[in-house]
Amino acid sequence: MLVFAVSDLLRSQQGKLTLTVYSLDGQTVNSLTKTVTIPANTSTLVLEQSLSELLKGRQREDVVVSMQLFASSGASYQADCFLCLQKDLRLTPVQPKVSVEAAEGGCLITAKADKFVRALALTIDGSEDCWFSNNYFDLLPGVPSKCFVRTSLNPGELKRRLTLHCLNNMTK
User: Fold this and answer.
1) Mean pLDDT of 149-162
2) Among 64, 74, 114, 138, which is least packed, fewest CB within 10 Å?
3) How far apart are CA 122 and CA 44, in angstroms?
């Protein structure tokens, strides 16, 4: 597996790269961290690792690879990738858990699951006056994701009307 970092900055930068391989059923298969140097205004190979070492016997269809780069500037970047075509992923059914709390101007939704969730879509039944900061995303196992909803609904009403859909629960 080759991992590249791309920089459009005019100065080089140090960073810490963390790569985690998760099984789609929620287990951490492998994790590694590496200090990297990213030269100015270029694309640079920052990690080269054999897939067999990374996957530890798992199949490509059963994992997701998550990468995070923490730059010395304080910025952080995240990218997730699959090692097969999306249609070949062996997703398992999942019921993400959500909590809703009041926030200034609306509500804050926190979603979390014990398995990988592909393409979680959040909608609110019967409400046209809502705006989501993000209502379509993946969930890594055990990693919560938050989104803000600008709405006049109170947290209890929003949670009651909240609908979750994901590719895990679609039949092939």
Assistant:
1) 95
2) 74
3) 36
Q: Which residue type occupies 15?
A: G
- Give the residue extent of every domain in the chain: 2-88, 97-169
Q: What is the pLDDT of residues 75-121, one digit of tens each?
A: 999 999 999 999 999 999 999 999 999 999 999 999 999 999 999 99
Q: What distance in Å separates the CA atoms of residue 38 and residue 7, rounded to the nearest whole number?
A: 7
Q: How buried is 5 (Cβ within 10 angstroms: 0-12 exposed, 13-18 middle, 19+ buried)?
A: buried
Query: CATH number of the domain at 97-169, out of 3.40.50.720, 3.30.479.30, 2.60.40.10, 2.60.120.650?
Result: 2.60.40.10
Q: For residues 127 and 150, what is the distance between their CA atoms, to the nearest angstrom?
A: 11
Q: Does domain 2-88 have CATH number 2.60.40.10?
A: yes
What does the angle CA 160 – CA 91 – CA 126 come to, to the nearest 5 degrees? Answer: 20
